[in-house]
Write a structure and sequence with these properties.
This protein is mainly alpha-helical and about 220 residues long. It contains 11 helices and 2 strands; from the N terminus they run ααααααβααβααα.
């Protein structure tokens, strides 16, 4: 009995340390991290209760449909899955979500957006990647444009962003392009993350429930 209690206390201490570490590494307060634990728990057990968010669970959380094909969902999942193991753990969830915090720097948001659009992870955004992104956006928005219009959009984007004229957009060119077109970062900020406890009061649990949940993450 004594060993079991000691083990339980050690687990709680480890998780409390993790929460403190994540608060120090991100734009979230310690209370924010604790509140987001409940969101993570709900997502990670929506299909399989294994304390990780799978690709299907991530898409289910975004669209309430884990079968719909979505380039946006896939790119977002890959951004959160920083170690590329096919699962999002609690640390990855909090650290990546912090990028979308209103207090996150523009540099953080620019770098994250570049990773989203660098579909093939080559270190630059090529013409075919721009094309994939545009078609993905049109599909998810249920918009129909002629091939000529799509090609014109691609040409215009490459022309404006590819200052070196080599047919691809590197991180330096991306930084300059975003500086001229700040609206490109509009979707990189989630205003509600500024005050999680006010925006999502259901995430704020009483002490008894917190003790039960926090020992798992």
């Amino acid at each position: 009995m004594g060993c079991a209690l000691m083990k339980q206390e050690r687990i709680y201490e480890d998780q409390a340390s993790l929460h403190t570490l994540l608060a120090a590494q991100t734009h979230f307060s310690l209370e924010d991290v604790k509140s987001l634990t409940e969101l993570f728990r709900k997502l990670s057990c929506s299909i399989c209760n294994d304390r990780f968010i799978s690709r299907e669970e991530f898409q289910l959380g975004l669209f309430r449909d884990n079968r719909k094909k979505s380039l946006f969902s896939d790119r977002m999942f890959n951004l959160f899955d920083s170690n590329n193991d096919g699962l999002i753990d609690f640390g990855e969830f909090i650290r990546t979500l912090s990028i979308f915090h209103p207090d996150a720097s523009q540099a953080e948001k620019i770098a994250a957006a570049f990773k989203l659009y660098d579909i093939w992870q080559t270190g630059f955004i090529g013409r075919e990647e721009v094309k994939e992104l545009i078609f993905g956006l049109l599909y998810e928005s249920e918009l129909i444009l002629t091939d000529d219009i799509v090609e014109a959009i691609i040409d215009k984007t490459i022309e404006e962003a590819d200052s070196k004229g080599d047919g691809k957009i590197d991180i330096e060119e991306w930084n300059n392009f975003v500086a001229q077109n700040p609206s490109l970062l509009k979707n990189m900020t989630i205003p509600y993350l500024k005050d999680i406890t006010a925006a999502f009061p259901s995430f704020v649990l009483n002490t008894e429930k917190n003790d039960e949940i926090y020992k798992d993450f």
